[in-house]
Design goal:
DUF2079 domain-containing protein; transmembrane; 22 helices; single chain; DUF6311; two-stranded antiparallel ribbon
């Protein structure tokens, strides 16, 4: 097994890697106790990070990314609704009227939506979102601990350290700011476990079937993460197999490995044929992404910097080197980088020749993903240069053009975690002087303590209006008809999807909305964009909501507004004084003033202002 602790062992005789099936009976209770303890610590840590939301799941939102939170709440509600009503989980007409939205090219989290559908109907989308987010963090830490303890290291403390570090690494905590896809880091160790099993002789069919199912699950939760994991496996295994000391072993394993991989491909394709067709050939598809790869590339200095939501960040040592707090993908801190290099050197000196092949593969993987995460051009301390990097050659290729380069840094933290775990494993089995042991202990403390995670920042989020919760909206909108909040729903004003999610999860029926927060076609050079191509009335109302500046409304503006309403097939316009802005407060008084100029005096129904639109 390429990553086993025996492969990295030094010349001193070492016990073999413990396996679940061969562990002595006396060890199994100890392992179970360790498993339960790690699971408890992981759950407590996940609750700590998300504790601000647990205070009021329906009334709190993630401060820096409430728009993504609203989107994933909607995806959970729509997925449950599609399952119970026999609708297409990969395309919807409820958003972006009249064109609809291709959810296969968005992050539809289909597996989560299906598995948690009963919970969504029972406690609502916001609370279900929080349950999944918390489980993601805890599952990531425990998943890496499990992989390490069962297959990669001998000592339990080494597995615990590696699992908890990777599970609560800065990138994982950053993406807990609203991303149910990227916070699902437990997918990676499960995929790696499946890949390692492909080498087992005589079991290629069963192992290939299992890995194929895991690939399909991973695609439905985090397709971008699946791509990164596959790419990392390719770089690691390719480097390991090309080592002169491992070529014979690689050739012997290759037939079994390829048979299993072929079964994996067949099973995964069979399960994913329709979503893949929708992704690449379906309606409202796009190529590339709506995000600038230069902006969303990792700053070289970010690797040595500290993130915001850590002890170091709370002490004022954080930086603004990420495009936003959700994308602090590296931010390991300079002491940890030094410690990782020291651990690599320690393991290299003590490793057997075969173990050095494994270390070399780990080092190459970390280096490749670090350089690729820097994007197409060098950026350091927020200064952009014209110095080209390898990603400039890859960024236009299929799949690469749909990924953000900075997120490639998320592969580096697990590699660092593996090095730390193997180093602890070696140090525990090696006689050391008190001075050396204390030195290593101090090094680990100085490197890891500043990265202890802080709780996510949260903010009050106004509730869904009574006009929606009471079902009053059904008196004004025909089944499946179009209702739109003012301003129109976008990533900056996600209320429309929150209202939809409530109606779907509480079995009130369907109403559609124009626009919405999603990725769709219409960006520059044929790439995607966030939301639809804007129409004049949408732009006007959003600008008023953002700035509070009221323009002079002319008859031409009114005519344009009527044309836009006809295009969207709107039956009713709704404005609430509790409108939520994801990045700025909605100036609802000014929106009311402009909407009255455009559409005439509104009715006051329940807790909203309402404009009926005649056919």
């Amino acid at each position: 097994m390429p990553l086993s602790s025996s492969a990295l062992a030094g010349p001193t005789p070492q016990p073999s890697t413990p396996q679940p099936s061969t562990a002595p009976p006396a060890d199994r209770p100890n392992r179970r106790r360790a498993d339960l303890l790690v699971a408890a610590v992981a759950i407590i840590g996940a609750f700590w990070v998300t504790s601000g939301l647990w205070l009021d799941p329906n009334g709190r939102a993630i401060t820096v990314n409430s728009s993504d939170q609203a989107l994933f709440e909607w995806l959970l509600a729509y997925g449950a609704h599609a399952l119970s009503h026999g609708q297409n989980p990969f395309f919807t007409d409820l958003l972006n009227v009249p064109d609809g939205v291709n959810l296969a090219v968005n992050t539809s989290v289909t597996v989560y939506a299906v598995v948690f559908a009963p919970l969504t109907y029972l406690i609502g989308p916001p609370a279900t979102f929080l349950v999944v987010l918390t489980a993601n963090l805890a599952g990531t830490a425990f998943g890496w601990y499990w992989l390490l303890s069962r297959h990669l290291v001998r000592s339990t403390p080494a597995a615990v350290l590696g699992g908890l570090f990777i599970g609560f690494a800065p990138g994982m905590v950053a993406h807990a700011n609203g991303h149910l896809n990227w916070s699902a880091g437990w997918v990676a160790p499960m995929l790696l476990w499946g890949v390692l099993r492909l080498r087992q002789p005589g079991r290629w069919l069963r192992n290939g079937l299992l890995l194929g199912v895991l690939v399909a699950v991973a695609f439905s939760i985090a397709a971008e993460g699946l791509f990164f994991t596959a790419l990392a496996c390719g770089v690691f295994l390719g480097t390991w197999a090309l080592d002169r000391g491992r070529r014979a072993e690689a050739r012997a394993l290759l037939p079994t490995f390829l048979r299993g991989l072929g079964v994996t491909a067949v099973v995964a394709f069979a399960l994913l044929a329709y979503p893949l067709w929708m992704h690449f050939l379906g309606p409202q598809r796009f190529h590339g992404t709506g995000f600038d790869p230069v902006i969303h590339a990792e700053d070289i200095a970010a690797y040595g910097a500290y993130p915001q939501r850590t002890l170091a960040g709370l002490a004022g040592l954080d930086t603004s080197l990420a495009p936003n707090p959700t994308e602090e993908n590296s931010f390991l801190g300079l002491p940890l980088l030094v410690l990782a290099v020291a651990c690599f050197g320690l393991l290299w000196r003590r490793a057997e020749p075969g173990g050095r092949a494994t270390l070399r593969a780990l080092g190459v993987t970390a280096l490749v993903f670090t350089v690729l995460s820097w994007g197409p051009r060098v950026k350091i301390f927020e200064a952009h240069t014209d110095i080209p990097l390898p990603y400039a050659l890859l960024g236009h290729l299929p799949v690469f053009n749909a990924a953000l380069p900075s997120r490639l840094a998320l592969v580096v933290a697990p590699v660092v975690g593996l090095l730390l775990a193997h180093a602890v494993d070696l140090l525990r089995s090696t006689p050391l002087s008190r001075r050396a042991r204390n030195g290593w202990l101090a090094g680990f403390t100085v490197a890891l303590l500043p990265l202890f995670p802080a709780t996510l920042l949260t903010v009050h989020r106004d509730p869904v209006p009574e006009f929606i919760t009471s079902g009053t909206w059904r008196q004004y909108v025909s089944p499946g008809g179009v209702l739109t909040p003012l301003p129109l729903t976008l990533d900056l004003a996600p209320d429309g999807q929150r209202w939809q999610a409530y109606a779907l999860a509480h079995r009130q029926g369907e109403f559609a909305i124009p626009a919405g927060f999603f990725l769709g076609p219409g960006g520059p050079d044929g790439r995607g964009r966030i939301g639809p191509v804007p129409r004049p009335t949408e732009t006007l109302l959003m600008e008023v909501a953002r700035t509070g500046e009221v323009p002079t409304i002319t008859d031409a503006d009114r005519a344009t507004a009527r044309a836009d309403l006809r295009h969207w097939r709107v039956q009713v316009l709704v404005l609430t004084p509790e409108a939520h802005g994801a990045k700025f407060p909605i100036r609802w008084e000014r929106v009311l003033e402009v909407a009255t100029e455009l559409f005439g005096p509104p009715e006051q129904v329940s807790d909203v202002w309402l404009w009926r639109v005649s056919s």
